[in-house]
Queue: 2 jobs
Job 1
Amino acid sequence: KRPAGAPDRSLARKVTKVGVVGAGLMASQMALLFLRRLHVPVVLTDIDQARVDKGVGYVHAEVDKLAGKGRISPDEANRLKALVSGSLDKAAFADADFVIEAVFEDLAVKQQVFAEVEEHVSAEAILATNTSSLSITDMASKLKHPERVVGFHFFNPVAVMPLLEIVRAEQTDDATLATAFAVGKQLKKSSVLVKDAPAFVVNRLLTRFMGEVIKSVDEGTSFEVADKATEPLGLPMSPMILLQLVGSAVALHVSETMHGAFPDRFSVSENMKKFVAAGKTAVWQWDSTGAQT
Ligand code: CAA
């Protein structure tokens, strides 16, 4: 059955090569998923060689782990590893028909990335973004072919979380949207069409929820108590562990976007700002009053 709002699947174009801009946490997990499910060449780019190498290294290591667990044969592992490559140059995206970006959550940076990618791909190549909160319509607005832009929002861990938010920008055409749904299906995700509104649906809920937990810490509840207080809700992960998984810098960006859009409903935690500014990655580096240690 076609997902609600998805255009006729006969409009979908075949994807034969994938480009991934960024080789960080989400990008490298996405590269692995595309590789495993589409079996097509996947090229990762980033701003320096160390980042590119780390991204490709992650994909190779995960493929080896799958082979080690007997999920894929050693031959298959070698085939998959040969299909992934890294480059500093977006010219490596030539012939890619689906390019997804997962760079820093900043509109101007993402617009610049898409403008650069557009120089190297065909007019029909899809430009997808994994942004968790920014406007897809704004991201598309400066391009020669804005109709090929679509939101394609995964959740961490990408290999495990079934949901995919597909976001239609004002400019997105039916062929782009149909291709996005077809790729979502190939990736074995449950795709849903969501409105191009700040933080779409999932992060809108999650940011409000996490924001209230952190606010209680800002107000003086101990870190451990605030975290433990969510136990009766039966979540798969406590909020502070989830914060660590998502990354506090990403969470802060999303809460700032949401505060900008709905100042009466979303706040930005001062402790969280200090925490991110200090480059802390482990939530338990906060002391029990919420101050950084
Ligand atoms: N990366 C890859 N695979 C992972 C993983 C990771 N970080 N963590 C777990 N897995 C895999 C395991 O390898 C295992 O796979 P197999 O069964 O194939 O071996 C499977 O997941 C289950 O692992 P566990 O037995 O350790 O499972 P668990 O019961 O502890 O569940 C979890 C782990 C699925 C991550 C679960 O804790 C969970 O659902 N947590 C909530 C995650 C969540 O809410 N994510 C959304 C964050 S918001 C976001 O990402 C959006 C944004 O834009 C900010």
Note: Residues 132, 155-157, 159-161, 203, 206, 236-237, 242, 246, 250 surround acetoacetyl-coenzyme A (CB under 6 Å).
Job 2
Amino acid sequence: MTQTRDSFHSRIGFVLAAAGSAIGLGNIWGFPTQAANNGGGAFLFVYLLVTLLLALPALYAEIYIGNQAQKNPVAALKEACQDTLPNVGKYAGIIGLCGAMMMLSFYTIVAGWMLAHALSAFTELLGLTSISQWLAISSTERNLLFTPLFILLGAAIIHQGVNAGIEKWSARLMPLLLVMLIGLIIYILRQPGAEKGLALYLIPDFSQVTNPKLIISAMGQAFFSLSIGVGGMMVYGSYMQKGKDIGKLAISITALDTFIAFMAGLLIIPALFVAQEAGLEVFSNNELIGEGQLIFKILPELFNSMGNVGLIVSSCFFLLLSIAALTSTISSTEVPVSYLMEDKNLTRSRATWLVSFVVLCASMLLIAFFDELFGLVIRVLTTILQPLSCLFYFIVVGWLWNRGNKLRDKALQEGRKWLPIWGNYLRFVCPLLLSVVFVNVAILN
Ligand code: PHE
């Protein structure tokens, strides 16, 4: 077993790390792209609903399991199913671990694009125009350079342990990201065309909200954005002292994450229409051209229109995004790393390098077969694997773990009346809701 386990020193340390995991490219690249592709307001409406009804309870369940077990996700799920199905628990943990690796395999590629764009603006500022142009255009060579660079950067930080550097960094830099977002939103909303985007984003077309494709995309996006279903939040929960008020913590993380996604939508969707007004081809048949890639055209275009200041804003913005991506990859990496350390007795350093090497191989595979694999891996992870894991967490917390008595015991101890209602919600309603969505996924596929 392990030496001493890592731990967060305070509640706020946990919230910052968990929010750092949740807030990332999913909020600023994923959410606006999906919203623009799925009717804007209707998507936002369903997203908020799914977040509240399913993703928040799943986040609670995931943190709760880790916190009770004080072990890595594979061991935690095994223990949670001890009395009934220990092997099923163990394999569910391993499937989550594979999900974390899948996430890392494509996420590091997109994070590499962010790094490249940050450098592109910076080199332009220095007058190195040809380098800057090369950096701004998506290519296999650029992927081959920046994906490994990002993985290396992450590994260098993780192998030193999570607490010291990254926690303090994110506490300082994430507010800066928010300030930049607000500044950019104010700028963009004053440009011609913005009001069309604003209307599309904020006024839902309710005839669309029952569209199964939209519901599934919103659910996948909500699960991805809150980092649930791959064990990352479970590990973080296990690094926190047992018995904290997990409900409140889960609500804070969800609120922060959802707020940033909402703000990113407020920037990007109007920006798409401003760009269209300026003559750029953005939509064809109501679908974004070039899917998410387009954001990398629209944003730099927007920054360019601001002159030299724009270049500084651009390099800072993409740099902050790279950092947001880094704090997100840390929680995913921590899943296999904690498993290798605790169950396979590897040192943190060895475990980190081993995991990074496997991630590197996986991402290289994705780069080599980009058209075939990239979208597929994202879809399988967000619409199948993450929801399935969450279904399992609900079953564990509601039914398997001392047959669901833990939450009731806690309620009795603390004299809280609403906890049994919450327990029953997790036990009956959540699995049912998720299963209904799942049947739709199966039918649509
Ligand atoms: N939530 C992160 C984002 O929105 C991505 C993530 C998914 C991180 C799963 C960890 C685990 O960018």
Note: Residues 21-22, 24-27, 103, 224-225, 227, 230, 232, 328, 331-332 surround phenylalanine (CB under 6 Å).
